[in-house]
Amino acid sequence: MKSKEIQKRLAENLRKLRKGKKMTQLDLAVKCDLSEAMIKNIELCRSWPSEKTLSQITKALDVDIYRLFLPLAIDFEKAAEIKTSVQDEVVQSLRRFIDQKLNSLELR
């Protein structure tokens, strides 16, 4: 993967995460002690953040750093919904299985 593609992924995920938390660029900048211009330049792929800057941003957004580099197609809100849906499905399947086993034991 080329560095421009990684930078674009970082920029778009940062924007998506920031907006998901209903923060402006200024809000995020203040929260992580950076300039608004720095946040804007990262989101516009004009600058590449240092490790320290990435650390400040992820701390301010309360996310793990890997989330900034996930494929662009991943919708964080949708991912949470899918996780909840899968968990619910597993619980329901497990309950049906246990009920079936208990019923089969009662029939004996």
What does this structure look like?
The model has no long low-confidence stretch (mean pLDDT 86). 70% of the residues lie in helices and 0% in strands. It is built from five helices and no strands. The radius of gyration is 21 Å and the shape is elongated. The relative contact order is 0.12. The longest helix is centred in the last third of the chain and has 32 residues, at 76-107. The chain has 108 residues and is mostly helical. It has helices at 3-20, 25-31, 36-43, 51-61, 76-107.
Write a concise synopsis of the structure shown:
With about 110 residues, this protein is mainly alpha-helical. The chain contains five helices and no strands.
Helices and strands in order:
Blueprint: H1 3-20, H2 25-31, H3 36-43, H4 51-61, H5 76-107
Rg over alpha carbons: 21 Å
Poorly predicted regions are none
What is the helix/strand order?
HHHHH
Strand content: under 5%
pLDDT averaged over residues: 86
Derived structural class: mainly alpha
The helix tally amounts to 5
Notable features of this structure?
single chain, 108 residues, mainly alpha, 5 helices, 70% helix, elongated
